[in-house]
Amino acid sequence: MPLLETIFKSTDFYLKLFVGFLPAAVFGFLLSDFIDQMLGSVWIVVISLIAGGIVLIFIDSCLKNDNPDNQEITYLKAFKIGLFQVISLVPGVSRSAATIIGGMFQRLNRSQAAEFSFFLAVPTMFAASVWELFKHYNDIDSSNICMLIVGNIVAFIVALMAIRSFIRFLTNHGFKVFGYYRIIVGGIILVMLLAGIDLNLLD
């Protein structure tokens, strides 16, 4: 399905995105302080990176449902994918991986799951940005707002251009390479922590 065709889908598609967005919005709001505390823990990030990497290495063999035909994304499926997105509130957990895997658990093929995950990121990232702006509005001036808007627009355009290549790579090669990458990065950070390096100084 062409990406532009997906963008100009009916309102039903965007309502499903909203349904998928709701779980992360609710849990993100209720657990905001707890999430902020987790963000201060490098150990949580390390564990998430390594554990997530192991999951990605083996997920392809566990979910052999890459049907070339697109499945219908119902409201219930969108909501369940949204529940997977809640996992990504934990620092170090990949939002894209969580939602793509969530889609595959709903019998979507890799391509369709990745495409839905991409569009689900739009309201999720927008809401997160608005929430952060609300919490830190005293530190923001007009120049910061302009940079934020331009940055988000550029990021969306670049992501729009890259998503097809990403979907093609994911369809052909699966998740393993991302899993190995996460384990390597997590392992490097773990070694640095065990060596006594204060990574908070690297912020």
Describe the structure.
- Helix content is 76%, strand content 0%.
- The protein is built from 9 helices and no strands.
- It is globular and about 50 Å long.
Briefly characterize the structure.
The chain is mainly α and 203 residues long. It is built from nine helices and no strands.
Query: What's the SSE pattern?
Result: HHHHHHHHH
Terminal CA distance reads: 41 Å
Strand content: under 5%
| Helix coverage percent | over 70%
> Mean of residue pLDDT?
82
Spans of at least 5 consecutive residues whose pLDDT stays below 50 are none
Tally of strands: 0
Q: In DSSP terms, counting alpha (H) and pi (I) runs of 4 or more, how many helices?
A: 9
Q: What shape does the CA trace take?
A: globular
Specify the biggest β-sheet. none
Number of domains: 1
Structural class designation: mainly alpha
- From the alpha-carbon coordinates, what is the Rg to the nearest angstrom? 18 Å
Q: What topology does this entry show?
A:
Layout (H helix, E strand, L loop, with lengths): L2 H5 L3 H20 L1 H8 L2 H21 L12 H13 L7 H11 L4 H26 L6 H32 L2 H19 L9
Helix pairs in contact: 2-5, 2-7, 4-9, 5-6, 6-7, 7-8
